[in-house]
Amino acid sequence: TMTSFQERAVLRDWVALNYLGRGEIVEIGALAGASTVALAMGAKMSGFFYRLSVYDNFLFPTGMYEQEYRRRMPIDGPGFRSVYEACTAGAAPLNTIEGDAVVAELPKQSIEILHLDCAISEDFHRAIYARFFPLLIEGATLVQQDFGWKQAPYIREFMGRLASWFEHKMDVETSRYFVVKKAMTAEDVKGALA
Are 159 and 144 in contact (CB under 8 A)? Predict the structure, then answer.
């Protein structure tokens, strides 16, 4: 996992206390599934029926982060889907979408909780925001796990531009929690990030 125990515990508790079953729970960037399990545990604790959709390509990155990923998951081959499956075996119901969230099938419903843990690039975030943010309902939670990560300053910049739609609630290590003040359209997101 790239998330700490504290981040996962707060994520679980936030979902348990705030999820009302009005929309899907979506995670983009699951890695081996530690935060996925926290989301599922929180949803079960809430008592509401939930659908948890998880997006990841489950491939080891090439370049400077590959060694760190492989240190955390010492397996052979190009991908780690098997590790994710083993770690999340008891976290049903899961709808796991393997592939790039920029082009993958969108959730079937509106989104009530969105957990983003994928500081891939500025372009990736711009595309993810344009696709997924218009699905966030008023009162939904957005958790930006890499908000405090210095190598991803574009996350802070983009969220600053989108401040009219989000209310900052709290920080837990590198994670920042937001609540949607008002729903947004694809045009709202595109205009704010232009």
Answer: yes
- CA–CA dist 152, 170 (Å, integer): 19
What is the C-alpha separation between 135 and 142, in angstroms, rounded?
A: 11
* Strand-by-strand arrangement of the 166-172 sheet: 94-98, 52-56, 24-28, 111-116, 136-144, 175-180, 166-172
Query: Residue 2 in 3-state DSSP?
Result: coil
Instruction: Look up the pTM and report it.
Output: 0.90
Mean pLDDT by 10 residues, the chain (194 residues): 81 97 92 88 92 86 73 78 84 81 89 88 89 96 88 88 95 94 93 88
**Calpha distance 103→43 (Å, rounded):** 27
